[in-house]
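It is time I had a proper look at our fold encoding. Can you supply me with one protein entry, sequence and fold together? It will help me judge whether the discrete encoding reads sensibly. Leave the record below and I will have a look:
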Amino acid sequence: MKLLFKTGNDGNAELKQLLGFINADLKIDNMMADIRTATKEVIKLIGKEVYDLAVEAYEETASSEENKEFVDAVRYPIAVNAYRLIAPSNDLAHTNNGRKMKQDDSEKLPFEWMLDRDNKSLERRYYRGLDDLIDFLDNSEENDELYITWTDSDAFKKTNELFIRTVDEFDEFFPIKSRLLLIKLEPGISNCEQYEIKPRVGKDKMNALKESLKENDEITDETDLELLRLIRKASVAYSMAWSMPRLSVQLYPEGVLQFAVSDQTTTQVKKPSVKSEVEAARQAFANDAEKVFIEIENLLSPDPEPIINCNNSILPEIISGNNFMST
């Protein structure tokens, strides 16, 4: 597998150019194994074909500004993730006598809460880099080869086969503002359509709606428009409930989950809470989804039979007097 980084001093300069917050003397040669691991993670997301185009652009002796932007968009999340992988081990000296604490006279060891905060910051920086990469690919229409390669990838096709195809469509019901998170939520959205929507709506109606979306045909029927809105609303709530115990908390928008860091001297222990934030959030989204499923059932249920008013007399009109009765 070809990498998007050189070794030696040239590689050190490339790394420093991408990660301005690191020391200039950080040697990329010590990170090559982690760069390979981080590269494989990016390839899983964007596909090998797109990555190979980045390698071709990187190896050109006279890359255009557009190619440089493309290459840097791919390299940045790789560099951040590789540094995330090596940073914890770099905090200690690994010697023949075991692990030792590093400390120079001019430097002080950080507090544990500082390490925690930096770890979370690096993780969010990594996800933001992936988001920027996907956004670049989504808007690369001027580069025909790149755009066609990207739109033919599994990551792109999977989300475009669903009722929710864009971040704006998802944000209408719950704001995530992240194309990366939408891709990560694809299995949950797909499960909702397969196991919850399809049994209620029916295969024919479901396929007809998807075909209209695929062909960009205008949907004019009011019932179909309301049904599409409810399907998307249910898919959002269901997929968020699905994702709560499965995805990293750093992927979600600020405020979705809140953890209190313990004051104990460890980076892993969390202060026990009165209730599980993850389970509480999952249950809230699951309850919202169930409510929308009921709305879908009510929308598609047949109109009730008219109720006969029992107060109406079934006898003909009767005219009565003192001594006679007639009809």
Remarks:
- The beta strands are 92-95, 98-101, 319-320, 325-326.
